[in-house]
C-alpha cells in the first residue's frame, strides 16, 4: 500500500467509523431485536418472523402506511411544483429584491417541525374558527377535527416548510443553464413557455432527481409535524408510520414489535427511493 492509499484511508476512517457506529451497528441490532419480544430492557423469547407476520395483519399499521403514502404522493407533487415555480420567479430578472424573496421563501425551513406544527395548529383551529365565525363560512370551521382537514392541514404545513428548501436546489441548476441558449431561443422568437419547456425543463433533470429524493424521504419519515398538528387524531386516522412505530415502542413498550415495523418501513422507503432514482437517472441519460 503506497502513501497515497494510506492517506486516503486515513481521511476516510472517521467517516467510516461514524457510519459503523451510528448506522450499521444500530441497524443490525435492531434487525435482531425485531425477531424477539424485547421490551426495551430484556429479551425473554426469540420469536422469529412472528412480529413481521403480526405487522402485516395490524390494521392500524397498514392504515398508517396507506395514509403516509397518500400524503407523500400529494406532498411531493406540490412541493416540487411550488419549489420550481418559486425558483423561476426569483431568477427571472437581475433584481435586488430577488435575494430578499429567496430568504423569505427559505425561512420556514429553518423553523423546527414541532414549532411549525403548533403554529399551524393555532392557525387552523383558532384563526380559522375566528374567520368562520366572522364570515359564517363553514369551510373555516372544524379544521383538524376530521380526517380530510387533518390530511390537508399536514399537506399545507409540509409544503410551506419544504418548498423554499427545494427552491434553492432548483435555483442552483437554473443558474447553471448557459445564457447563450436562452438568448438564442429569444432571438428565434420562442415564448417564455417554450423557452422553459424546451430548454430549461430538460436541463433540470438532475435537479428533479435530487429534489424528488429529498421530498420523498422527508415526506415518508415525517413525525414531529404530525405529532404537533394532529397527534394522529381523530381516532388515529391521520397517524403516519413514524408515529405508529414510536407509539408502539414507547407508549405500549412493545419494542421488538415496533422494531419489526421499523424494518418493514425501512425496506419500503429503500425500494421506493431506488426505483425513483433509477427512473429519474434514466430520464437524465435520455435527455
UniProtKB/TrEMBL annotation:
**SUPFAM superfamilies listed in its UniProt record:** MetI-like (SSF161098)
Q: Pfam families from the xrefs?
A: BPD_transp_1
**Where does it mainly reside?**
membrane
Does the keyword field hold Isomerase? Answer: no
InterPro entries in the record, alphabetically?
ABC_transporter_permease, MetI-like, MetI-like_sf
Q: Give compartment(s).
A: Cell membrane
State which residue ranges cross the membrane.
7-28, 71-90, 110-131, 151-173, 262-279
The record places domain ABC transmembrane type-1 at 65-276
Provide the topology term for how it sits in the membrane. Multi-pass membrane protein
Domain of life of the organism encoding this protein: Bacteria
Which keywords has UniProt assigned to this entry? Cell membrane, Membrane, Transmembrane, Transmembrane helix, Transport
Q: Which CDD domains match?
A: TM_PBP2
Q: Which PANTHER family match?
A: ABC TRANSPORTER PERMEASE PROTEIN, INNER MEMBRANE ABC TRANSPORTER PERMEASE PROTEIN YCJO
The entry assigns this protein to a family as follows: Belongs to the binding-protein-dependent transport system permease family.
Question: What name does UniProt use for this protein?
Answer: Sugar ABC transporter permease
